[in-house]
Amino acid sequence: MTSTALPTTADLRTRARTSLERIGATVPDGTDFPARSPITGEELFGLTAATAAGTEDALRATREAFLTWRTTPAPRRGELVRRLGELLRDHKGDLADLITIEAGKIRSEALGEVQEMIDICDFAVGLSRQLYGRTIASERPGHRLAETWHPLGVVGVISAFNFPAAVWSWNTAVALVCGDTVIWKPSELTPLISLACDRLLARAAEEVGAPRDVHRLLLGDRTVGETLVDDPRVALISATGSTRMGREVGPRVAARFGRCLLELGGNNAAVVAPSADLDLAVQGIVFAAAGTAGQRCTTLRRLIVHRDIADTLAARLTAAYARLPIGDPFDEHTLVGPLISPQALDGMQDALARVQAQGGKVLAGGGRRLADAAPRAAYAEPVLVRVDEQTDVVREETFAPILYVLTYDTLDEAIALHNDVPQGLSSSIFTRDQQEAELFLSAEGSDCGIANVNIGTSGAEIGGAFGGEKETGGGRESGSDAWRAYMRPATNTINYSSTLALAQNVSFL
Ligand code: UN1
């Protein structure tokens, strides 16, 4: 099924302008780089990129603001984030429109992304009255041993196009309550939603009397990001993107002994055991694999199915894929919007050609849609490919809706296949066998940062820590105790006795 009528670029421009104006953001009229919509592939506005002087000014201003912000009591810092959360609620529809226009997400997923921002604000407000340190038993009489968490400094947030607003909010809401200030370098593909978020945070800061420079937005290309990566005034670089990007960022930040929080590629798999509830599995799989047009870090890319049910499940998925409505993400019936760019479609077609040359068989999808209606956009049918082996292309992350279907005979074999990829973000098992489920979640099971049972790999709640192992980069963001990455711990030994007792029974003098 295809929704054929797409909005025109003029319609999208008007809609984006209206949203930006309602939010109070300035509608851009620069010439340095374009804001495009993947819905038509055409340009909406011209943007002005940050200059070297502008970047320097942001570094100086956020550092200066940090000096005040770090001594503002954390619950007061929480008031800023609470106000931001209220403004996000007030402008939920406008923000979702901008996400749909720039990232091509369907309405429900765009609204879900804004909800994720609201949720992390709520979480961070609660956190602002916690930020717990510990008291540790001291070995010496009359001594107290404690751990205190202090603000870290300026946090550089580098974010990707696919969660253009939520990933910023995970970092920013938490960093702000932790007493840090933030410089944001968003993807060049999603400048409009960044302008909107920056404006709402500036409004919140004005209203609660927080320093304006707790946050600065820098639009531009990779040179802006490189400046942040190399500048010792940036205490933490939190970067989301490809493993290739992380390989450059990690060593550069380490070379100056800065801190890094990396959220890089995933190659997420689900094991489907013979006892699985197939109705539930089909729903979970199709959302995780085809949702967001396969452009989440957590997208399901590999299915490892028990041989006894592989044909049945493949047939059910083939039928479900044939019915997926692809097209205008503003149309309420659409489930699959456009890919971000024609280059993404090229990458998808290249991976498909390679896997077919390696013996893969396409079961469903793989075609291009709406090429006549929108020649500069890239609408792709999510594709299901049956493969006998986990070849090199299956072990890579292709940022498009390709689901490779592999088979297994024993759970040990399934877990070995599951873990035999360089990435380690998200994973799941569909089973009604508790032993199997527990084994998959155990130390000898999935090696990922996220491991689920009877639910797909994508769509995590904000309350848990988000991130993964191996080439995914090892960082954790969002909930649980991910806040600790944004603070520095100090260990305090306090002697409230009148004698100087040395640790480890050392005598001196
Ligand atoms: C990402 O794709 O970078 O778990 C983030 C999920 C979302 C976040 C994805 N909550 O799919």
- CATH topology of the largest domain: the name is Aldehyde Dehydrogenase, Chain A, domain 1
Question: Averaging pLDDT over every residue, what do you get?
Answer: 97
* N-end to C-end Cα span: 86 Å
The DSSP helix count reads 15
Number of domains: 2
Unreliable parts: none
- Which CATH C-level class of the largest domain is it? Alpha Beta
Bound ligands, named by name, code or SMILES = 2-aminohexanedioic acid
Classified in CATH, the superfamily of the largest domain is Aldehyde Dehydrogenase, Chain A, domain 1
Proportion of strand residues:
15-25%
What is the architecture of the largest domain at the second tier of CATH?
3-Layer(aba) Sandwich
Main sheet: strands, sense, barrel? 7 strands, mixed
Structural class: alpha/beta
What form results from the Cα inertia axes? globular
What distinguishing features does this structure have?
single chain, alpha/beta, Aldehyde Dehydrogenase, Chain A, domain 2, 2 domains, seven-stranded mixed beta sheet, five-stranded parallel beta sheet, 20% strand, globular, binds 2-aminohexanedioic acid, Ald_DH/histidinol_DH, Aldehyde_DH_dom, oxidoreductase, EC 1.2.1.3, aldehyde dehydrogenase (NAD+) activity
Describe, in plain words, how this protein is organized in 3D.
This protein is α/β, with parallel strands linked by helices. It folds into two domains: 9-264 and 473-490, Aldehyde Dehydrogenase, Chain A, domain 1 (3-Layer(aba) Sandwich); 268-466, Aldehyde Dehydrogenase, Chain A, domain 2. It contains 15 helices and 23 strands. The chain has helices at residues 9-23, 52-69, 74-90, 92-103, 107-127, 166-177, 191-208, 222-230, 243-255, 278-290, 307-322, 342-357, 392-395, 411-419, 434-441; strands spanning 33-37, 42-47, 135-136, 143-151, 154-158, 181-185, 215-217, 234-240, 259-263, 268-272, 300-306, 361-364, 368-369, 379-380, 383-386, 402-408, 423-424, 426-430, 450-453, 465-466, 469-470, 477-478, 487-495. The strands form seven sheets. It has a seven-stranded mixed beta sheet, sandwiched between helices. Strands 7-6-5-8-9 form a five-stranded parallel beta sheet, sandwiched between helices. A three-stranded antiparallel beta sheet has the order 3-4-23, with no helix packed on it. Helix 1 runs antiparallel to helix 4, helix 1 runs parallel beside helix 7 and helix 4 packs antiparallel against helix 7. The longest helix has 21 residues, at 107-127. It is globular and about 80 Å long. It starts with 8 loop residues before the first helix and ends in a 14-residue tail after the last strand. The chain binds 2-aminohexanedioic acid. Residues 116, 162-163, 167, 240, 296-298, 458-460 line the site of 2-aminohexanedioic acid. Keywords: NAD, Oxidoreductase. Residues 31-489 form the Aldehyde dehydrogenase domain. Its EC number is 1.2.1.3. This is aldehyde dehydrogenase (NAD(+)). The active site is at residue 263.
